[in-house]
Amino acid sequence: MKTIKGKILLSMILTIVVSLSLVGGIACALGYIGTRSTLETTMKKMAVVTGERVSYQLGEYMAIAGESGSVPSLSDPEVSLDEKMKLLQQKVDAYGFQRFNLLDTHGISLIDGSDYSSRAYFQEAVQGNTFVSEPLISSVTGEVTIIVSAPVWKDGEAGGEIYGVLYFVPKETFLNDIVTSLQVSKHGFAYMLDAGGTLLLMRI
Fold it and tell me: Is 0.85 surpassed by the pTM of this model?
C-alpha cells in the first residue's frame, strides 16, 4: 500500500510541477511578447514625434533663409558688402545660427572668395529653391551639421531674377541635442540615420 501511495503521490507531484511550469512558461512568454510589443509601439511613436520635431525646426530655418533672400538690400549694388554682412549677422544672432555666407551666381563667396559651386546647397538655391542639405561633417569643427540655403532675389522679388545665394549654418549641435533628449529605456539607445542609412548620431 505504501508503495502504491508513494507512486500516486509522486505522480500527483509531477503533474502539479509540470502544470505549474507550463503555466509559468506561458505567462513569461506572454509577458515578454506584451512588453516587446509595447516597447516597439512606443519606439515607433517616439521616432515619429522626433522626426516631426526635426522637420518643424528645419521648416523654420528654411522660412528664415527664404525671407532673408527676399531682402532688397542684399541685391542692391549701392549697398556695401559690410552692410549686407551686418544684416545677415543680425539674422544669425536673432535665430541662433552658427554662421552665414553670401555667394554670387557662380558659387563664389563674396566674403572669403571660396568656390562653393559644386555644393548641392548652392546648385539647388541658384535654381530658385530653398534647400536643406543632408547632415554632413563640418570641415571647420568636425561636428555633424546641416546647411540651409536660399536664392537672393534681385530687388527682393521672389520668383524673379536670381542675384546670388545665401546660406545659414544652424547650431551644429541641434541634431545631437534632439537625439540626446531621447530616453528609450535604461539600457536603450537612440540613433539617427541619413537617407542612405549611414549612421549620423547615436545616444547611448
Answer: no
pLDDT at 204: 44
Number of Cβ within 10 Å of residue 90's Cβ equals 11
Q: Which amino acid is at 55?
A: S
Which among 90, 87, 119, 88 is positioned nearest to 106, based on CA atoms?
Answer: 119
Closest to 184 measured CA to CA, from 58, 54, 36, 39: 39
